[in-house]
Design goal:
The structure is a single chain. The protein has 413 residues and is an alpha+beta fold. It folds into 2 domains: 132 residues, no CATH class; 217 residues, MetI-like (MetI-like fold, Orthogonal Bundle), CATH 1.10.3720. The protein is built from 16 helices and 7 strands. The strands form 2 sheets. Strands 4-3-2-1-7 form a 5-stranded antiparallel sheet. Strand 2 and strand 3 form a beta hairpin. The two termini are 17 Å apart.
Length: 413
């Protein structure tokens, strides 16, 4: 009884031992944390990006090509069109069009019922263009009369112009409080005046989405084809292996380009194109693993008990090779990110204005020899870190799922 309790206290499940071994790899844990952080950014999307407009495509040409850490005073001018309300999940997935036009300014002054300002021109304030707007056009969205509350009273401000000092003072107070804001650009702006940080964050969603869906497609096709070839053998194995060898003989990137041209350019086409080229490795490994397991005693017992072949494969064989498949999936995930970036760089992947790390490099690689090399280097570093993270996690999973070492630990327990 004492021995039994001691054994139960010191023993662990196979999955627990595998996880414990994975946690011993410090680089793998850091990589997993990076992947988790990137996944959080991709899921929350526009809820946390500085620029929450669709595709993070708010272009302010006056502040194009500003360095990281740049900040500027903005005058928010309400748009004339009616505000379109979107739900929480719609904003998270698709973003929300801004209610305002943003005008970068150097300085401003109020005079009567107008605001005069100098449009931002960098350090050359003497060359700044002076412009003005009626106060009502800054905060009101319609041409009809609008009201503002002051304490318990309402003041009517006619958009045709007014000399009502009380109304004008209330408008000026509202503009100072809500319409004059300082915007910060941590990674600067690109040549269109878009926020680079927002573009980079939404690009994370594209890369991880392509990785997830293409790997899922490759797993479905690869496991199915590999299982048929490995379990039934014979002419089925010969036919599937012939198909695998044909697909394997064509360079991956070339095959993806051909499929992309056949399906057309676009977001979903990239998923299918990458997924249809990555299944061969999954199929080869699955076939080889099932070859080694199909003669095992428990498989023979399934046949003797009259189990269907499909139940034998999916209930008893595949669970025993999932460790190897998970490792391949991690490696394929990193390959999918690289392929998507390459396609976008070539212009046949994700299409503008949707941001992608590959597209960001394509748009800015010409600045590498200038003073704005970071515009291409930043997305390049993001690709490198993400691919490295998945490779390190894949290597750690391969070691953690090693049957010999895990089995030795179970015996030692």
């Amino acid at each position: 009884m004492f021995f039994k309790k001691k054994y139960q206290a010191g023993s662990s499940s196979l999955s627990a031992l595998t996880w414990r071994k994975f946690c011993r790899d410090g680089l793998a844990l850091i990589s997993l944390s990076l992947i988790t952080f990137a996944t959080f950014i991709a899921v929350t999307g526009y809820l946390i990006t500085p620029d929450a407009t669709p595709y993070a495509n708010n272009q302010i040409l006056e502040i194009a090509l500003q360095k990281p850490g740049f900040s500027v005073l903005m005058l928010k001018v309400r748009k004339k069109e009616t505000e379109k309300k979107v739900s929480f999940f719609e904003k998270m997935i698709y973003g929300k069009s801004s209610e305002y036009n943003y005008i970068p300014i150097n300085s401003y002054i109020f005079s009567d019922d107008k605001i005069y300002y100098t449009i931002y021109s960098g350090k050359h304030e003497a060359k700044a263009i002076i412009s003005y707007l009626p106060l009502n056009e800054v905060i009101f969205s319609t041409s009809a009369n609008e009201t503002l509350k002051t304490n318990s009273k309402k003041i009517v401000f006619e958009n045709t112009g007014t000399k009502d000092k009380k109304a004008v003072n209330k408008i000026i107070e509202t503009i100072n409080k809500n319409s004059l804001v300082r915007k910060h650009f941590l990674l600067g702006t690109d040549r269109y005046g878009r926020d680079v940080l927002s573009q980079l964050m939404i690009g994370t969603r594209v890369s991880l989405s392509v990785g997830c869906i293409s790997v899922l497609i490759s797993l479905v096709i690869g496991i199915f084809m590999g299982s048929l070839a490995g379990f039934f053998r014979g002419w089925i194995d010969d036919a599937i292996m012939w198909l695998i060898n044909v697909v394997w003989s064509v360079p991956t990137l070339l095959l993806v380009i051909v499929i992309s041209f056949a399906l057309g350019k676009g977001f979903w086409q990239v998923f299918i194109a990458v997924g249809l080229t990555m299944w061969v490795e999954v199929a080869r490994v699955t076939r080889g693993q099932i070859f080694s397991l199909r003669e095992k005693d428990y498989v023979e017992a399934c046949k003797a008990l009259g189990f269907k072949n499909s139940k034998t494969i999916f209930k008893h064989i595949l669970p025993n090779i999932m460790g190897v498949i998970i490792v391949i999936s991690a490696a394929n995930f990193s390959s999918a990110i690289l392929i998507e970036a390459g396609l976008s760089f070539l212009g046949i992947g994700v299409q503008p204005p949707m941001p992608s790390w590959g597209t960001m490099i394509k748009e800015n690689y010409g600045y590498i020899i200038l003073d704005y090399a970071y515009l291409a280097i930043i997305p390049g570093i993001a690709i490198m870190l993400m691919v490295l993270a998945f490779m390190l996690v894949g290597n750690a999973l391969r070691d953690a799922f090693d049957v010999k070492t895990v089995g030795r630990e179970i015996i030692e327990k």
